[in-house]
Structures are given as C-alpha cells and as structure tokens.
C-alpha cells in the first residue's frame, strides 16, 4: 500500500544501531531486528514521532544509531499503515531492499543520551509543518 491520504511522501524512517547497519551484507535485503520476532519492520513517516519513539524506548540503549530513509515505492514487501498511539505507522511486512534505502543519517545524541533529530530531518519537518 502506498502512503495513506494526506501523506505525500513515500519516504519513511527506521532507526537502527549503527553497528547492525555497518554489518549489513551488501547482497541481502535489510531485515532489522523485529521482522523475525514481530513479523514486520517498524517505521514512521514523521520525524518528530521518530524522535519521540527513540527517546521513549531507546534512550538507555548504548552505542551509536542511524536513521534509514526508506523509499516505500521501491519496497516490494507489503507496507501497511497501521494505527498505534493515535498515529499511522508504516510497517514493512518483509525485508527492505537495500536500493530502497535512499539515505542513512547519523542519529545524534546529547551528552545525557537524549536523541536529537539531524538537521536534515529538522529542516524537512519545518517544511512539512508550514
């Protein structure tokens, strides 16, 4: 399924440990850490929601993280937009082809461990809000 009505971009965001992404074999699609356990890969179309999820559930996780920008128009697995916490979240029900990962951004943190949106996503959030 493409983006739901009102969501104009096919780009969604997925956060991953930098070490996991760095170890990703170049000849295999990305499966993340929840495809095997939950049946889908978690994503969001909202940078501010990504930040909320990161700080609510992953703040105590150690190590560096990255944000994968995924073009859902290049994903062959089903992408289902499902309701959770009052938001529609795109869940990818299969592996993500590496060609669909159009950009990888560092997910910066403060000295206290709080995640911060990279400037590239802050600017896109500003454009979406205006």
Characterize this entry briefly.
Helix content is 24%, strand content 26%.
Task: Please describe the topology of this protein.
Blueprint: E1 11-17, H1 18-22, H2 35-38, E2 41-42, H3 47-57, E3 65-71, E4 79-84, E5 87-92, E6 101-106, H4 119-129
Antiparallel strand pairs: 1-3, 2-5, 3-6, 4-5
Q: Can you put this structure into words, describing what you see?
A:
With 130 residues, the chain is α+β, with helices and mostly antiparallel strands. The protein has one domain: Alpha-Beta Barrel (ADP-ribosylation fold). 24% of the residues lie in helices and 26% in strands. The chain contains 4 helices and 6 strands, in the order βααβαββββα. It has helices at residues 18-22, 35-38, 47-57, 119-129; strands at 11-17, 41-42, 65-71, 79-84, 87-92, 101-106. The protein has a 3-stranded antiparallel beta sheet. A 3-stranded antiparallel beta sheet has the order 2-5-4, with no helix packed on it. A hairpin with a 2-residue loop joins strand 4 and strand 5 (87-92). The radius of gyration is 14 Å and the shape is globular. The two termini are 26 Å apart. Mean pLDDT is 89; it is low at 126-130.
